[in-house]
């Protein structure tokens, strides 16, 4: 899938055990979800993100999940495997379109938003706001705290157990990632998502005149030694990724 034109699908998860099951899977607290898409993740047992998703609570026992199209089948297989003894059903995936509404990157079912200019605007605004997206190329690479997901409400450190929780909590309470999310500008050909540059690991990228802009995982001191220009993320994502002592 072209890194500059991401595609997404949405499917619904409904049933008596839907909330309980998701609570044991997601890094976010499912009981706090509302009608707005919340970025969150399902991690592997090593605490790295296998599935980067957006989720909202559509109704009681009804949740809508958005994920990169190339990860959709794998997520459905994951849900069937871990939810084999839980009472819920998942719908067939349907295309959903990235767009920008009220200056925020979001998603729409409307065909009016199925346009290249809407996707381009979503990519540009997502990079500016740290709204990363995980594709098949970057599955199991990044830890939630590295991606500043906790600063966007996507990780709850007070909820009960979930996949990878032990590792994620240990990093938060007893350590801190030395490399974490930055928004940068570079020159030359745009790398691909998942590529390792000299001082950074690429999460998402888009080509611009004379170079590229990207979300990368990197150590701040290494970025200072590189040719990459560090751009400002939103204020909420400029805070230290470590837990406040």
Automatic annotation (TrEMBL):
Coiled coil: none annotated. InterPro entries: YgfZ/GCV_T_CS (IPR017703), YgfZ/GcvT (IPR045179). This is Folate-binding protein YgfZ. It comes from Psychrobacter aestuarii.
């Amino acid at each position: 899938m072209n890194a500059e034109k991401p595609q997404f699908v949405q499917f619904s998860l409904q049933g008596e055990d839907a909330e309980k099951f998701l609570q044991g899977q997601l890094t976010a607290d499912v009981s706090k979800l509302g009608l707005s898409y919340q970025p969150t993740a399902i991690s592997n047992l090593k605490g790295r993100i296998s599935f980067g998703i957006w989720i909202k609570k559509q109704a009681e026992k009804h949740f809508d999940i958005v994920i990169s199209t190339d990860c959709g089948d794998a997520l459905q297989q994951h849900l069937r495997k871990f939810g084999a003894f839980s009472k819920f059903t998942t719908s067939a995936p349907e295309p959903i379109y990235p767009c920008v509404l009220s200056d925020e990157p979001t998603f729409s079912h409307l065909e009016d938003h199925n346009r290249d200019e809407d996707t381009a605007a979503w990519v540009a605004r997502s990079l500016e706001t740290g709204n990363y997206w995980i594709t098949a190329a970057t599955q199991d690479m990044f830890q939630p705290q590295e991606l500043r997901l906790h600063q966007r409400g996507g990780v709850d450190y007070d909820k009960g157990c979930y996949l990878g929780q032990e590792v994620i909590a240990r990093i938060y309470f007893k350590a801190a990632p030395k490399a974490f999310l930055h928004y940068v500008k570079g020159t030359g050909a745009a790398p691909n998502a998942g590529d390792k540059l000299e001082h950074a690991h690429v999460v998402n990228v888009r080509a611009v005149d004379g170079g590229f802009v990207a979300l990368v995982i990197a150590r701040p001191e290494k970025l200072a030694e590189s040719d990459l220009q560090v751009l400002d993320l939103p204020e909420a994502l400029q805070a230290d990724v470590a837990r406040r002592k």
